[in-house]
Amino acid sequence: MAAAAALALASPLRRLLRAPHPRGAISAPYYVISRGRCSAAIAVAAAAARDTALKGSADGNAAEEVRNVLDMAERASQRRDVFHTNFLTPPIIKEAMLAIEKLADIKAVAQGGYPQAERCRISVGHSDSMTSNPDVVAALSISGNFRMEPCSHGDFLGAILGTGITREKVGDILLQGERGAQVLVDPELVDYLISTLEKVGKVGVSCTQIPLLALEYEPPRTKSSKTVEASLRVDALASAGFKISRTKLVSLISGGDVRVNWTPVLKNGVTLKSGDVVSVSGMGRLKVGEIVTTRKGKYAVELIRYL
């Protein structure tokens, strides 16, 4: 009975979640400012955001997503309503929020379910329409006996995506050791996941909704170090930060195991800047801190490793 009900629910949801989006649109729209100067203001902001993102991103997809956010804002400006994005990655959130700040009479809120959330949804609307923060994030507890079968972040994410949900509908995943994990999702998918998600790895699980106040999280622990390098290339800084040889790091880049600001890099010549986050599969993440040019023309770089 439960399986049949889940299948009936899954079919229309999968069609919805996997449906392609029209050109120039993103999967979740925005609402923006008043009429008249609105279109011109958004057009200017979109161009500025695109240029900024292209200069600061190792991947042009980030610039395209920010531009799509503002393009959608231009269309939504006539509706006087509030709209919400899917879950976005930190660099896209940053660029989009900076661009939206340039638009008059607009209120924007980024929410991920808890203060340190990385993946967030942005809600945007006219200041008269957004009188309170929208309820756009829900929390689920995925419980099971993981004592003998510990599961990773990737295991939980893979199990959720295996139900037909796309990555953009899922926020952060907070591991709880042998108890399971807590997951942030689009509220529209709560009932679907509760009825569909039955296993993570080999472990049978139960899925229940919990209040956001019940989330268990801690500020990330970090350790800082400094290195002096001749360049700011990702292979130089990441090899120093993760304490591995540059040859090994280059091999990991070639294998698609290295990301800069959550975007895969395939060339070791990508240049980093302060604030960039580098992640390596199986090794964790580090953030590029302060960069100071030495008298000899080299770079003294602070590297912040997430423990």
Quick rundown:
The chain has 307 residues and is an alpha+beta fold. Helices cover 32% and strands 25% of the residues. The model is unreliable at 1-37 (pLDDT under 50).
Description:
32% of the residues lie in helices and 25% in strands. It has 307 residues and is of the alpha+beta class. The strands form four sheets. It has a six-stranded antiparallel β-sheet with strand order 10-15-14-13-11-12. The protein has a four-stranded antiparallel β-sheet with strand order 5-6-4-9, covered by helices on one side. Helix 2 (38-56) packs antiparallel against helix 4 and helix 7 (234-242) packs across helix 8. It is globular, with a radius of gyration of 21 Å. The N and C termini lie far apart (44 Å).
Helix/strand layout:
Blueprint: H1 2-18, H2 38-56, H3 60-76, E1 83-84, H4 90-100, E2 106-111, E3 121-126, E4 138-143, H5 153-161, E5 170-175, E6 180-185, H6 190-196, E7 199-200, E8 203-204, E9 206-210, E10 222-229, H7 234-242, H8 246-254, E11 258-260, E12 263-264, E13 277-280, E14 284-293, E15 299-306
Helix pairs in contact: 2-3, 2-4, 3-4, 7-8
